[in-house]
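Duplicate of #3305? Posting structure anyway:
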């Protein structure tokens, strides 16, 4: 990913040339007497296949976010089921996140603001600093959920000090959460979910340009509101947006309905040349693009993000899901939303092919991948 945003990108020309040079050197070496035999002996009989992804990747971690940084590491954060802290893991491989050490980099306040419902953190690198966007409520008013920002100027997000930059002020003091940020043609945007006064829904999706990483430039525009039946089961919800730029378009995924097995992923699309701040330029898929699957026994897939595989080119879908359909009590009190990853495909028309949520990895495959 680039320094300025978290949208997956193809490897740089320098890396490609470096790889080509290495391949040329190996070919040249094989032509030197006495070297060819050594090279052949050192080479494996067949190229090793990339290890399959471990699923679930991280147990009991919902709303996952994975940032692939220029230092060669994947950084992982997500919602902990106790809703009381922000965690961080790091690994050079996606599978390595499964067993990577987990650090608590920030805890909820015992009283006052940022004291409850610590939800959906996202880690972004902006202007040489680290930022975490997350949702939180006062300890004394747990449903007064708003968007907050942390900043760390240390090159290593596990070190330094996480400074509370405060609440992101939107147009209304209403229920708001699930902020994500991205840049497009030099402009930084924030996209988030919020309840709009006067609307008969829980949350819609909004977009605004940013003045700095913790301040909206405004105005904010509504990109989507729950309108289809599949967006309104249990709750009328559009939330968890995330952007992916590919093939001359920006694809903005989001999650809809209650957080049980009805939870699913929808998608908005805009042409890369269009004005992102004009809602009329965005089109909405009339059907969900990623849903529960009885065959693979994965339920309520959603709150996704995207990253790229270790090859730097293959797109990877990151999301959470449960392994069962029936939930006793409030789904928010059920801790078993697990982080999962799988390859993201592409259709001939240049749009994402999400497929279905893959089945759990077999135990023997997990052992081989460790």
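Output from current build:
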């Amino acid at each position: 990913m680039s320094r300025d945003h978290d949208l997956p990108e193809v490897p740089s020309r320098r890396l490609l040339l470096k790889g080509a040079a290495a391949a040329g050197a190996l070919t040249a070496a094989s032509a030197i007497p006495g070297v060819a035999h050594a090279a052949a002996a050192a080479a494996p009989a067949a190229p090793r296949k990339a290890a399959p992804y471990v699923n679930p990747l991280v147990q009991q971690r919902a709303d996952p976010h994975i940032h692939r940084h220029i230092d060669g590491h994947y950084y992982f954060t997500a919602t902990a089921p106790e809703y009381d802290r922000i965690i961080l893991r790091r690994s050079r491989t996606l599978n390595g996140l499964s067993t990577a050490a987990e650090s608590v980099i920030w805890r909820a306040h015992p009283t006052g603001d940022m004291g409850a419902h610590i939800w959906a953190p996202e880690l972004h690198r902006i202007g040489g600093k680290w930022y975490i966007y997350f949702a939180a409520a006062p300890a004394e008013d747990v449903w007064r959920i708003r968007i907050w920002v942390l900043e760390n100027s240390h090159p290593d997000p596990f070190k330094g000090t996480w400074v509370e930059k405060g609440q992101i002020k939107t147009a209304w003091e209403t229920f708001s959460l699930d902020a994500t940020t991205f840049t497009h043609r030099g402009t930084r945007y924030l996209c988030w979910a919020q309840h709009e006064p006067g609307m008969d829904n829980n949350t819609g999706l909004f977009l605004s340009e940013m003045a700095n990483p913790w301040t909206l430039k405004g105005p904010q525009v509504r990109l989507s509101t729950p309108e289809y039946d599949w967006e309104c089961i249990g709750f009328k919800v559009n939330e968890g947006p995330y952007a992916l730029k590919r093939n001359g378009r920006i694809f903005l995924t989001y999650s809809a309905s209650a957080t049980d097995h009805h939870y699913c992923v929808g998608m908005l699309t805009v042409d890369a040349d269009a004005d992102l701040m004009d809602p009329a330029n965005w089109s909405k898929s009339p059907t969900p693009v990623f849903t529960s699957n009885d065959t693979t026994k994965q339920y309520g897939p959603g709150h996704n993000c995207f990253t790229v595989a270790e090859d730097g080119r293959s797109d990877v879908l990151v999301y959470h899901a449960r392994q069962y359909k029936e939930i006793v009590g409030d789904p928010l009190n059920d801790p078993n939303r697990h982080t999962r990853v799988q390859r993201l495909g592409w259709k001939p028309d240049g749009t994402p092919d999400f497929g279905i949520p893959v089945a759990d990895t077999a135990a023997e495959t997990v052992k081989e991948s460790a």
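Confirmed duplicate; merging threads. The chain has one domain: 13-369. The two ends are 25 Å apart (CA to CA).
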